[in-house]
Design a protein that fits this description.
Length: about 210
């Protein structure tokens, strides 16, 4: 079986500190299975994630319409996020922008790969890299001035029609705002061969 979809609901800010993760199988099965993980801090739930696993089958054809992804630029760019905090996560990702940037409003394309491991002694799998950087779609494709507005994602849903390969993930992201306090960030995810899936984020939009 393979992990085909992960949906994360962010209940409250996840603190930097001791976290507890509880997992269970909600729906066992041979063809599909649903897994559940709850992250707690100090006995309080801060994040819930659910993942669908689907049985692998080599008998089905690959069907998708897309151009080959652009090449990975040779030069790394240090992120610049107006009024934002760049130390930590942003500085520990190797960003290679194809179009746009953190400080340029509108759609954006960038290759990304984590510089460090999440756990000592354990290499990140391509799946982990894709899930880790997919949450950046709303940040790279901002359409509002971050010094005047917040646009915080309350969730992240990633659907992958195949497992990514290699260490690079391409984020091709665009954000739209409804003028009602709600926004949507859509991110097409690719490896160096082709598109592998999509990330969606529901945004809370409000004046600062």
């Amino acid at each position: 079986m393979r992990l085909a979809r992960v949906a994360v609901d962010i209940l409250r800010p996840v603190p930097v500190g001791v976290l507890t993760v509880k997992t269970r199988t909600m729906r066992p099965g041979k063809r599909v299975a649903l897994l559940d993980a709850v992250v707690e801090s100090g006995g309080q739930e801060v994040l819930i994630a659910r993942g669908w696993r689907i049985a692998r089958s080599g008998a089905t054809p690959a069907v998708f319409n897309d151009e080959p992804p652009p090449a990975v630029p040779a030069t790394s760019v240090r992120p610049s996020f107006p009024g934002g905090h760049v130390d930590g996560y942003l500085s520990e990702i190797d960003w290679r922008f194809v179009s746009g940037n953190f400080d340029e409003p509108g759609p954006c394309q960038t290759w990304a790969r984590p510089r460090i491991r999440l756990l000592p002694g354990e290499d990140l799998s391509p799946m982990c890299r894709a899930l880790l950087v997919a949450d950046s779609g709303s940040g790279i494709s901002m359409t509002l001035d971050p010094s005047r507005f917040i646009f915080i994602n309350v969730d992240l849903t990633v659907v992958l029609h195949r497992d990514p390969v290699g260490e690079w993930v391409l984020l091709d992201a665009v954000s739209t705002m409804g003028g009602t306090g709600t926004g949507l960030a859509e991110t097409r995810l690719s490896d160096t061969a082709s598109v592998v899936g999509t990330g969606l984020q529901t945004l809370l939009v409000a004046p600062r």
